[in-house]
Amino acid sequence: MIYLYIAVGGASGACMRYFLSQLIFQWFGKGFPFGTLVVNVLGSFSLGLLYSLIEHGQMEATLWRATVGIGFLGAFTTFSTFSVDTLYLLQQGLWVKGILNMFLNMLGCLLAAWLGTIFVTFFVKG
């Protein structure tokens, strides 16, 4: 049954990633991989929030971790696309954009995950 939860979450996360990425490409163009950056940062914040809620006993671990953490957010965020986006920029000689993409994804995702845990600590747990 747990595999069904992961599959449903994963399918939903993949569809949401595609939808949000396309929306961001329409807004900002394709000169920089903003779509991948946004889904990775948003997903990192959400995963930090989820795991902190589970850690603090606010949510049941098995169902939420499988459906949302592994399924939805695992498919929503995308390290492989980040890697290919960065490689493409570097291969095109766009070194500043490539390095900026690496920096923003790594720092942005770590900061977002941390903020997710801080949010639970200060606003949910009390």
How would you characterize this protein structure?
It is a single chain. This protein is mainly α. It has helices at residues 2-28, 34-55, 61-76, 79-91, 95-124. The model has no long low-confidence stretch (mean pLDDT 93).
List keywords for this structure.
126 residues; mainly alpha; 5 helices
Number of strands: 0
Q: Which overall shape is indicated by the principal axes computed on the Cα atoms?
A: globular
**Main pleated-sheet profile:** none
Poorly predicted sequence stretches spanning 5 or more consecutive residues: none
Query: What structural class should be given to the helix and strand makeup?
Result: mainly alpha
Distance between the terminal alpha carbons, to the nearest Å? 34 Å
Helical segment count = 5
Calculate the mean pLDDT score and round it.
93
Output the radius of gyration: 16 Å
Beta content comes to: under 5%
